[in-house]
User: What shape does this take?
Amino acid sequence: MQLLNPVDQIFLHLEGRHQPMHVGGLQLFSIPEDAGPDYVREVVTKARSFTDVQVPFNRRLKYRFGQPFWVADDSFDMEYHVRHLALPAPGAIRDLLALVSMLHGALLDRSRPMWETYFIEGVTDNRFAVYTKFHHSLMDGISAMRVMRRSLNDQPSPGGLCVPWQLPESDDERSRRNRPSPWQGTWKAAAATARQMAAMPRVGQQVFSAWQQAREEPDFTAFKQAPTCMLNRRISGSRRFAAQSYSLSRIKKLAKHYDATVNDIVLAMCASALRAYLLSRDALPDEPLVAMLPVSLHTADSGTGNKVAMIFASLATDVVGPVERLAAIQHSVEHWKRRYKDMTSEQILGFTAALSTPAGINLLTGIAPRHQAFNVVISNVPGPGETLYYGDAQLEGMYPVSIVLDGQALNISLASYRDSLEFGLLACRRSVPSMQHMLQYLSDALDALEPGDSPGQKDSRAARDG
Assistant: This one.
């Protein structure tokens, strides 16, 4: 029995019928050419045969004295957690995304381990999909991606099917099992506390400096209130998911042309798409939208804890020209890069916490719904650069499916895979109607950044929910 930490308990407290607190992912696979008609059914049967379920997939909630604990599930039902579905012919991508939208809006059963995997056959072009969701108290999006990556192979392996719930220990898991002695643990905790305390004077200086900058520099977005926007309404329980892939080579080429980063181009795409969408709804604020960008502070040898800073970037949606908008976004992000450059990891975390605490309290309580620190979350997670396989089925695309909250009705997440950036957009269907039009606006935004008179090649692989 293990008590949930305070952060994980927050995810449980936040959850309601209108606000499920799970993250997920959609993967598309091509069926091998020599496969028989029952290929997907055989994959599901093989997946269900792995019954030695490992931590954390075997954990369920148990309450004692009003506190939630993790305990091992003694009556694990594999058929409940691993499900087999099929799309009606012809298996259009829009039907797949409509199905994922419905599945992602449903709460996970708290009396069972809080995860589910769906094998979905009948996808057009001889493909099948795997949609998996995990409660955020069980693991976050980055951890979920790492777990899913470990179930994939670098080479096609007809007899080498792996499943996330039964895998060899990773280095992190092995290190947690071989815990240090109490004295070593105490020393590490004391050292970490000392580093945090040593960071406080610098954090105070940076907070005061940021407060001054917010008053004197219009491009600094740290203390600015984000404009009132339709994206920041209360949400319902219905979801709409949309996904699309873009050539990473093309985006890198544009980044080089504009002396920008890939993330700058991504932000410019999102900004232009949001501007076009809000204009189409006659809902574009006069002030620029503000995006919150999670930034990982993990190093190659760091553990799996939460080490995430934040950047509050102007999306310059008040600027008409796409190239000028890109320049304004770069200028806004550059403020944060310069500020973080001379700060340690502990100082950055302290600074982020000091700035985001009021916004976090507002988001958790809804005490001031018209006062938002940011309008949208845009998260970019690096993914694998090589072709991967699930057994002998080639992975064609992988799309993150995140969370929306009261006051944050749209989430834009993306991950890289091979030469693609895979966008996954999630929204409340009621608060952000016809959100799937954002996919066309993203394509238009990328074309508009192409230098010269002619638009760039439309090389995106669209997956649209109608």
